[in-house]
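Dear colleague,

As promised, here are the two records you asked about, laid out in our usual form so they can be pasted straight into your sheet.

NAME FIELD: protein one
SEQUENCE, THEN STRUCTURE:
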Amino acid sequence: MTPRDNKLFRTGVAATAILANAAMAPANAFCGFYVAQADAKLFNQSSKVVLARDGEQTAITMASDFEGDVKEFAVVVPVPTFIERKQIGVVEPKTIDHLDKYTAPRLVEYHDADPCAPVVVAARAMPAAPMMAGAVYEMARRNYGVTVEASYDVAEYDVLILSAQESDGLTRWLTDNDYRIPAGAESVLGSYIRQGMRFFVAKVNVERMKGLGNGQLRPLQVRYRSAKFMVPLRLGTVNARGPQDLIIYALTRSGRIEAANYRTVKIPSDIDVPLYVKDEFGPFYKALFERAVARENMQAVFVEYAWDMGWCDPCAADPMSNRELVELGARWIGSDDDASFRTTRRGGSDAYATRLHVRYDAKTFPEDIVFIETKDRSNFQGRYVQHHPWRGEASCPAAKTYQDDLTARFAREATDLAQLTGWSRSEIAAKMEKSGETARQ
């Protein structure tokens, strides 16, 4: 394969697609407040997909990280059923970015109280809810065993729905229509054909894109009804130069989703970290995640966030509006400013968000991820905490105990950080001393 082919055929939609030739202000929370986040941009070779699932109705929104000439962009996605024009749309990139920020692992900070001041325990109130087909092309069928079942104009994209009798014919059809197919793609495509799946193929219509005035490619959304609840990973591994990161944001009615055919584990959370981590939160979370991946031999799906959309603690971004959630496919929740959707909220948006993060390659994830929706609506988030010590004057007996406890706390934070990240404890302790935390024990 040529270098150009490598560029054109890299993964762009999280494992669901093949590419071919063709700051939100943080909101205060009621206990501590959010000061940093680890969003999807931290990870190279990463991509994002949003799933909205209601019974057997699924909406999948694919966010591409493609950079380059839009004439060289196309996406090929296996879909379980025939897709009509009304089932396809585009989503504004900022909506997915908002969901990414809202669910991202986050750092919160607290300030210790004066050890000599009386402790007043206030009633802890629950946070308020947020304010919230087409013609059949005979030549394709006869020469390749490929049927072009439909063709659609969708915003800046030209979309085809294909079915195929065998992978060889589909590969030749894609190649002859200027799709660069890497070695290994044929067998993967064949497995989808044997499952009776169709192929959603989209290219950019440059002239129409100019007419719409879009400066960037918008994520494509496909909606369909199927008992299959999955993300087709394997196409994204065909030409990968190494492991890739996939972040999946799921919106459901019942509760958290998890992988049915891979181990699902929660990312380490609710751990105290030194003060200097605030300025190194990105590298900290990357190291923590890589350590967790290694511990699971890169064979696990990690939960980074699972929470009812009606509230958040702490809020890593402004709450999602109903209109944004509907745009992402959660059409059951209703929209305050769109009467065509029925409002079914109970004190907040009637949706539950799960954020999953997987690092994968063809060896460790040989099968597509199949999901199940659980009834579990308990809350979880990747959350890391820093406590600022009291630095004022304190001369009461409790102050001596507080200072002794601080020394032990700093040492514990240094040890925990080293275990989480694999960083040198001595280097951690040296950085802590610069911020006034003596951790040498």
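NAME FIELD: protein two
SEQUENCE, THEN STRUCTURE:
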Amino acid sequence: MGSTIGVPGLILLVILALLLFGPNKLPELGRAVGRTFREFKNGAREIIEDEPAPKKEDQARQTAAVEETKADSKRLPE
């Protein structure tokens, strides 16, 4: 009931791939799969890095607002 392939399953897949594609096409197929994974990985990394970083001005405003709130909380009620 496990979803693992195991060693016999892998051997069967390799033999099947050899029969379908032949020994000359397998290296080309492996390179193509490797390039595809590399492109996907680079694309995902670019999407993650494209998130806009907060600008220094925005950070300065947020810091000033927090400091102002702290200063207001220290004042005595009137």
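A couple of things worth noting about protein two: Residues 6-49 form the longest helix (44 residues). The chain has two helices and no strands.

Best,
R.
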